[in-house]
Amino acid sequence: MHQTALQVAPAVLFIIVYPMLQRGIKNENFWLKVVGYTMAIMAGYFIAGGIGARLSIDDFDKWGFALVTLVILAFELRDVFGKRFWQLAIMLVVVGLSSHIYLMIRAADRPFINEGHPSTLRAFQDYVLRKQYGNTSFVVRRGSFFGDQMGYHFLRYFGMQWFPEGILAPLVKTAGVIGQNIGNMFIALLGVLGGIFHYRKNRHSFNYFFCILLFTTIIMVFVMNLSNAEVRDRDYFFVVAYNMWAIWLGIGALAIVNMAKQDNIKYALAV
Known about the structure:
The chain contains 13 helices and no strands.
């Protein structure tokens, strides 16, 4: 779930940035900044990755990515947030990360379950940075994005949350797989209807919500970079996505109720 928290963070940041984007997009140099900042962030990622490879520091590319992003944010928000804001933000980050110190204290007591035994500073660093899983890269894909990562992993996990295989078979009098596909189509269409209804009723809240959904689905799949030979199902990585889609399911159900109340719909049903 730590990965989910990192993925949701940019979407939450969008809540702050969105009003600024609405104002900034009217400026002539807006798209120039978008392209320039994107290239700067990617350059920071690859340059830091090259330096890290020479220094044998696996995560140096991620630090470069984060550093360039923070510098851009600090520059663009210099007139919005003062120095005290950034000091408070850094302090809160330190406080949030300080809970990990518990791992060293607990490991030193040698409990029955002591994965990684992070009792020393070096072991603690390797444990927190998940060195046992090796270094991963966004560029080197561990499987086909559409076939393995989106199809076999994400969409299969997504379907498992609503109508597991076999649950609809007795009701629709079909084979388990066919019943599951019917259930998946129903969930997909009802969610899409909810998204359309949401967009028409409140475009601003739709933009906020869609950003969170985007980061917890497609971007999450891209970042996790799951292989086609995982030792177990990884559906728990996408819990937030299921919850977000469930909200659109509720809105979609509300849309159907509203449409059913319209006179022309009632007339069509009667005919």
